[in-house]
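name: query_chain
kind: protein
chains: 1
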Amino acid sequence: MGLNRRDILLGAGALASGLPLAAQTKDWPNKPIRIVVPYPPGGSSDIIARAVSVQLAELLKTTVLVENKPGANGNLGADFVAKSAPDGYTLLLCDVGALAISPSVYTKLPFDPSKDLRGVTMLAYSPHLLVVHPSVKANNLKELVALSKTKDLNFAVTASGSAPHLAGVALERASGAKWVYVPYKGGVQAIQDTVGGQTDVLMNGMLATLPHVQSGKLKLLGVSKSTRMPLVGDTPTIAEQGVPGYESGTWQGVRVARGTPDAIVNKLNQALITVIRSADIRSRLAGQGAEVVTMAPAEEEQFFAKERARWAAVVKAADIKLD
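structure:
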């Protein structure tokens, strides 16, 4: 039986260190760990990566570095991790929902998220917020839909083919709204331009968007969660505003290169869950609208497969394809 690329990488790493693979696994970690965030600084994934990195370093007794590798809607950084040595020292922390969308949207994806990456755990969920620039003359979804039929409304897209983009497409189709999509290279820039009035409408993760709502720089029209959130007062859900069953959000999770030994994945799973469930981080995230959600590696894999199938249907119906 021949060796595949993962077997070769794993074996090469063991030989290079002069240790058998079993010994390396037992000794893990014995060098710095990198958390790769495939988006620009300041977004939901970046916020969570930096929140967990300090405590993770203390728990594992090693250095933990956060490295931003933005580009191609997160696919550049994800590809980097997919092609890294499967030894548990390079982690991908990203919007798992967006990663599940990529295979349906991109015709030339250089890696397969299902085959080249494996799940470690989910960390947090935050619903998408539907917000507009304060100058937009709409105070709820019904008024926004009506306004969109009388004038062009620029809808800021955090990245073409991203989860917020697909959430906007799903909302447009279900509500009858008409958006003019304006793509960006990340959520931070999309937020900044909506705050500045260059774009009118934005759908984005609550973790990164809520501070701008609280400061009055953005006007909140709806929450893409099944139930209302006390954190944003009486703001109704999108489902309550004429789109039954509508729900979307940002799911931050950790994945590693396929071939990473089970023993290392399980250690990472336990360490990350311990950190994200700590009272300090849980409270901090809750105050920003994010809910701690953890999973076993197998559960994260199942979630990924479910999200991939769910969004594939939306992509097909909207006929979205990118190179």
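note: The longest helix spans residues 297-318.
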